[in-house]
Ectoine/hydroxyectoine ABC transporter permease subunit EhuD
Amino acid sequence: MNWNWDVVSDFMPRFWDGVVLTVQALVLGSLLAFTLGLVWAVAQRSARAWIRVPVTAVTEFVRNTPLLVQLFFLFYVVPEWGPAMSPLTTGVIGLGLHYSTYTAEVYRAGIDGVPRGQWEAATALSLPPVRTWTAVILPQAIRRVVPALGNYVIAMLKDSPLIAIIGALEMLGEARAYGSETFRFLEPITVVGLAFIVIAYPASLLIRALERRLVR
């Protein structure tokens, strides 16, 4: 099959629609993953077993089941118990929830890396727990883990095509749909593949530079 630039031109409007949806899912999913991950990490350090044990069980379950299964569950099963969600909303929640279990481990490592003396100093100053976490521990822990969190954003980008399975047509979903309609897969799939490289590779270089800067 020969390359046809007319096909590329015809596909581009749908490609940009897919880019917009991909960016929406990636940004919102990342924010959800970072926020929930921090909640899980702090909860897992709780002295109260009724908080620590269920949170640990849930994060282990989510981390050890496929993202695709979770997306299907959220889109097809959850609406039987409550309101139905749009494909994009489901994709954002699925990506965010799934990756929050990985970012929780990143946060945990960062928290464990805070010197014990910092905890002791906070105790000596009689700081309340909330103040200890927000003013002493978390600022140091998060600074250590920013590069690792960035790596999970790239991983989420590469997993974003899975949300097309539930009808959220991101870049690859639009390419597959266009190919099914026109029987031309070469051009749209190639354009999407190059787009992923153009987005992911510079992002990985930025994360490496950030990591070098933070470890100085």
